[in-house]
Design brief:
By secondary structure, this protein is mainly α. Helix content is 27%, strand content 6%. The chain has 2 helices and 2 strands; from the N terminus they run E-H-E-H. It has helices at residues 56-64, 89-108; strands at residues 36-38, 82-84. 12% of the residues are buried.
Length: 109
């Protein structure tokens, strides 16, 4: 596990307690210990209504620690493990660059 998760493992984690604030749903998993890895893509180059979707992955991560992990039909579902990869600064930068280009082209049209 990576250093932020070394102190907590699957067996020691209390799903009813305080999670790890920098991890998806506060779970004690990383890309090496997860069954499911979510790839965040902060992209809104061609949105047609309003901007803001590029902030979605970060908003999901920030809000996920407040989600109840109880799932009645799948007891201990959290033990399956999932994580969100770090948000790519390269993708974020490309989004900004191409969003400006798209806006300029749309305005030209």
């Amino acid at each position: 596990m990576n250093t932020k998760n070394e102190a907590i493992n699957r067996n020691d984690f209390d799903p009813n307690g305080i999670g790890i604030s920098s991890n998806l749903f506060g779970l004690p998993f990383d890309e090496n210990t997860s069954e499911m890895i979510i790839i965040p893509v902060p992209w809104e180059v061609t949105v047609s209504y309003a901007s803001g979707t590029a902030g979605g992955p970060e908003a999901v991560l920030n809000a996920s620690c407040q989600v109840d992990l109880f799932q009645e039909d799948i007891p201990n579902a959290w033990k399956l493990g999932m994580t969100l990869l770090p948000i790519s600064e390269a993708i974020r930068s490309d989004n900004h660059k191409y969003r400006l280009m798209a806006a300029n082209y749309i305005n030209w049209l």
